[in-house]
Amino acid sequence: MTNALLQLSARDLVKGLRSGDYRAADVMAACLARIEACEPAIRAWAWLDRDKAMSEAARADARRAGGAEPGPLHGLPVGVKDIIDTADMPTQYGTPIHRGRQPAADATVVARLRSAGAIILGKTVTSEHAVFVAGPTRNPHDTARTPGGSSSGSAAAVAAGMVPVALSTQTNGSTIRPASFCGVVGYKPSLGLLPRTGILKQSSVLDHPGVIARNAADAAFVVEAIGGEEIGDEQSLGASAAGLTEAALRDEPPPRLAFVRGPYWQRADPQACAALEAFVAGVGTPVEIVDLPAAFDDAAQILGVIMDAGIAQAYHEDFARARAGMAEVLVRIIERGQGLAATALLDALAARDQLRRSFDALAAPYDAILTLAAPGVAPLVSEGTGDPIFATTWTLIGAPAITLPLLTGAAGLPLGVQLVGGTRRDARLLRAAAWLERGRGSGLHDGRPGNGKRGDVFCASWS
């Protein structure tokens, strides 16, 4: 029964938990047993309190048994990236500068999870200050390889079956890239659909909370429960996330799809390019080939200016008091940001807005644009956390994006297909993503280590 519980989707788990077919304590015990087996090799968690997790699960069971109406996420274990505040757990940003930091309040997304009945299992590892410095986490498909960054722990924990869902964030490629590397689903909603209060800030126009899950409908299910307007966030869309799960479960009609190579295609591994092109050719519905306008060639440079300026502003206190404790790559980013002229930032923001308008016009006829999620499979740990370039453009313009583990790349490792939608068109995007999942038998990689030919050498069998 334990392993059977771990194999259920988040939606099926919650359905059984709400009906009383499953007990939250049994689900939590299954997750903790899996963590016990896998964590020594994977190191996905920055903070765990097993007794507290079991106590929360027992309380959820008691509330339901006592007649309380179960919430929409009743009893669902969730991992939370360690840059998202939790009032009852440390939030340390992956850096010794903030070791022992204890927030006074939950981030809005965490408060909404709890209100919906979810149980916060623990905090997942992040890259230091959520930038390019790798944490200790390893890829469950091959522990010599990176899980990606900066949502490394969230992606690895879901891929290894430790938790069905985890929160992530993305300011460049920090949800899409690790999800692709780890063979799971990573969903970055439109900018402003998920609230951001209580999340480490890097850039107001680039910071996107997200979700790592095992399928598109599960990602939609969680975002629907916690999304919607947040007063005080200037980027908030002012709309609810209702209807996302229903959209993901709709079968007909087939989506309208386009394929974009984009300006950074030459940075991808040839095997990854060939795999995606073969996938597009066999999708089963017409896929139009679309070229982005030449202005998109500058997307990485534009994002770099905005991100450098944002990080310099957001981290100026840490820089002033603890520069010696910062990684050199972060110091360089802050120094670049401090050296930017105001006109350079304003020009970058104006260029970003123009690209956003241009893409929305281009994407309007389609439910989703298909492209690579990453340049290839997860690199070795010694080579860093991987290139985020195939997420950069879509983060810059605030478009919704999701990666599906539908391809196999070099060494039999997972490789994601990224789908991108017009801004604020999350429902259309999720319907297209789930349609592709169903058509491909939920993908060649479903998050189970061993599909990448490496096997579960470090922990007990998944099934």
Distance between the termini: 10 Å
Helix content: 25-40%
Instruction: Identify the strand order in the major beta sheet.
Output: 1-3-2-4-6-5-10-11-9-7-8
CATH topology of the largest domain: Amidase signature (AS) enzymes
Question: What is the total domain count?
Answer: 2
Chain oligomer state: single chain
Q: Give me the strand/helix succession.
A: HHHEHEHEHEHEEHHEHEHHHHEHEEH
Query: Hey, roughly how much beta strand do the residues contain?
Result: 5-15%
- Structural category is alpha/beta
- The second-level CATH architecture of the largest domain is Alpha-Beta Complex
Would you state the CATH class of the largest domain? Alpha Beta
Total count of strands: 11
Average pLDDT confidence is: 94
The radius of gyration over CA amounts to 20 Å
CATH superfamily of the largest domain: Amidase signature (AS) domain
Q: Low-confidence spans: pLDDT under 50, at least 5 residues?
A: 441-446, 450-457
Total helical elements:
16
Shape by Cα distribution: globular
Report on the biggest sheet.
Answer: 11 strands, mixed
